[in-house]
Amino acid sequence: MSTKQFDVVVIGGGPGGYIAAIRAAQLGQNTACIDEWKNDKGGPALGGTCTNVGCIPSKALLQSSEHYEQLNHHFADHGITADNVKIDVAKMLARKDQVVKQNNDGIVYLFKKNKVTFFHGRGSFVAAKDGGYEIKAGEEVIFAKQVIVATGSNARALPGVPFDEETILSNDGALRVGSTPKKLGLIGAGVIGLEMGSVWRRLGAEVTVLEGLPTFLGAVDESVAKEAAKIFKKQGLDIQLGVKVGEIKSGKAGVSVAYTDAKGEAKTLEVDKLIVSIGRVPNTVGLGVEAVGLQLDDRGAIVVDHDCKTNLPGVWAIGDVVRGPMLAHKAEEEGVAVAERIAGQHGHVNFNTIPWVIYTSPEIAWVGKTEQQLKAEGVAYKAGQFPFLANGRARALGDTTGFVKFLADATTDEILGVHIIGPFASELISEAVVAMEFKASAEDIARICHAHPSLSEATKEAALAVDKRTLNF
After folding, report:
1. Domains along the chain?
2. Which cystines does this chain contain (predicted)?
3. Residue 452 a catalytic site member
4. 152 marked as binding residue
5. Which end of the chain has fewer CB atoms surrounding its CB within 10 Å, N or C?
6. Which residues, in sequence order, are CB contacts of 274 under 8 Å at separation 6+?
7. Is 12 assigned to a binding site?
C-alpha cells in the first residue's frame, strides 16, 4: 500500500497545531494533523492541554466557583438572599467536562469543514526521505514536504516527587478533585496555582501557597502585584514567599511538606491535596528527534529562529515546544504565521503585543512592558492610573476592586504597556493590544469616545491620567 502524501503535516492538535492545520488547508495545502489525546471513551480529544486540562476546564471551574461565592457572600448586597446554599462538586465537574467536550467536538467539525485529514495517535519522525519526512501517525506512516511540530508542554514535577494525580497533583489532577479538600497546598504562586487555589478556596478549602521566589508575581507590574497580594490575602489565600521546600511525604492521610520559611524557620505543612505548579517543560519525548537530527536546546525545547524554522529544511515548530511565552494564543499566532510562510506569504507575530491574563477575581491582564522593566532598560516614561472605585459601571456591578495603569514614552507618548487588575480585565486588555499594535499614543486612547457607563471608561481615564487630566478622579 502506498504511503499517504501531504503538503503539510502538523504534529499536535492543541491551539497552535489545529489552528496551523486549518490555516494551511485554507491556503490550499493538502494538510494532515496528528494528535494522541484521548477522551474517557478512548476517542480523540482535540485541543491539547489547553482544551483538555488547561485553559478551558479551569475557566469552567472558576466560573462555577465564582457563582457559588457570589451567592454566599455578595448577592445579599443586591437584595437577593438564599438559605442552605450547597455545592454539588460532581455536577460542577460534569459541567466542566461537557464544556471540554463541546470544544473537542468543535475542532473535529472545523477539520471536516476545512478538509484537514486527522490521524488519532502519536506523531513522530521516522526518517528524512526524498526531500521530505516520513512521519508515524498512530498506526500509519505518512509523508510530507513540510512538517509543523506543535507538541506543547507538560507540567514540571518536583525532583523525586512524581505526580500521582490523587494527592500530589499537576494541573490535570487539580481539575479532577472529586470533593472540596479541607486543606489544600500549592507549590508555586503562578497562574495555574492562583487560579486553582481560588477555585477551591471559594468552595471552602483552607489554601496555603508556598512560593520560592521572594517576590509575588514577579512578571507582573509591581503595583498590580502588590494590589493582588493584598486582595488575595484578604480573600483568605495564605501566600508565603521566599520558602525553600524540603521533603514531601504522601500517604493515605494526605501530604506532608517540610519547608523553611523566609525567616529561616523550619515548618511543616499538612494538607489533604498538594498541587505542584512550578512551570512547564517542552514536550519532545517520543517525537523521534534523533531519527532526523532535530536540534533541541538545554531545556529540551526545539531550537527555532525568529520565523519558527528549525535546523531542518521544511520543519517548523511553534507554541510551548519552542522559545517564548507558554500561552495558547501565542501558539495560535505562530501557527497562522508558519502556515502563511509555507504558502509564500509573510506571517508576522509581535511578541510585545501578546496579552497575558490571570483569571482570578479580580482578573489581572497586561500587555507590553512593566514599570520595573522600563526602569531597568533606562526608558523615560510617563504613568497614568485610574481606579475602578471611581467608575460608574464598576459601582453598579458591585466590584470596584483594582485599577487601569498606562505607561507611555515620555517623549513620543507611544503606549509602552497597559496593566489592569479588576473586573473583566481579560476583555478590557484587548483595546490596549490593538492600540499598541498600531503604535498608538496614550493621547489617542484619551481622545476616543468610550461608551457610558462602561468599564472601558477606566481605560480612557487612565490614558488621560498620563497627562494628569483625569475627568472623574
Report:
1. 4-155+281-349 (3.50.50.60), 168-278 (3.50.50.60), 353-466 (3.30.390.30)
2. 50-55
3. yes
4. yes
5. N
6. 167, 168, 169, 184, 185, 186, 187, 248, 250, 255, 257
7. no
